[in-house]
């Protein structure tokens, strides 16, 4: 045996033959994946509960108090719209659908503006709440309830109030205020709410589910 062979660490040649480094990396990756999967499993219920609380809060903010005596999170139907579907939450009182809540969106200045809107059985808007947007701070973000009460102006509106031609901002001949330096944003929200009312009118019987 040569000196070099005598000095070599036991098993060194074996490690070289099997390529222990890739195997070690594979084991580490497998352990990491298992740890992530376990963490996801342990936190899944907590995350789902938090999401349900947030959703319930958003739904109740667009629905007047006392309008629902059911669990609106579980009274849900899906209605096709284009290439996707719209989730419709139904508020019931004494067993009858008194209002529905669903999400609509429209392209704003920077990106899609997403909002929840509640509509009563007669097709009147009960409330509108912006849930996601990327509009310019200090200008377009006035659609947020924390920044202004502008969105409250949709309460009580319907396809007949105002007339169809007046479903626009005042700059375009409509009845809704625009913001100084930010007309695109309120214009998009007005279109979204009007589109939501059109959607309700087209699917009213299905949403109410009582043949009304």
Automatic annotation (TrEMBL):
What HAMAP family does the entry give? RsxG_RnfG (MF_00479)
Name it. Answer: Ion-translocating oxidoreductase complex subunit G
How is it placed in the membrane, per its record? Answer: Single-pass membrane protein
EC code: 7.-.-.-
The residue ranges of the FMN-binding domain are 108-200
Q: Name the Gene Ontology biological process terms.
A: electron transport chain
Q: What does this protein do?
A: Part of a membrane-bound complex that couples electron transfer with translocation of ions across the membrane.
Question: What are the transmembrane regions?
Answer: 23-43
> Which top class of enzyme applies to this chain?
translocase
- Kindly state which keywords UniProt assigns to this record, in alphabetical order: Cell inner membrane, Cell membrane, Electron transport, Flavoprotein, FMN, Membrane, Phosphoprotein, Translocase, Transmembrane, Transmembrane helix, Transport
List where in the cell it is found: Cell inner membrane
Q: Which organism is it from?
A: Denitromonas iodatirespirans
Q: Which GO terms describe its cellular component?
A: plasma membrane
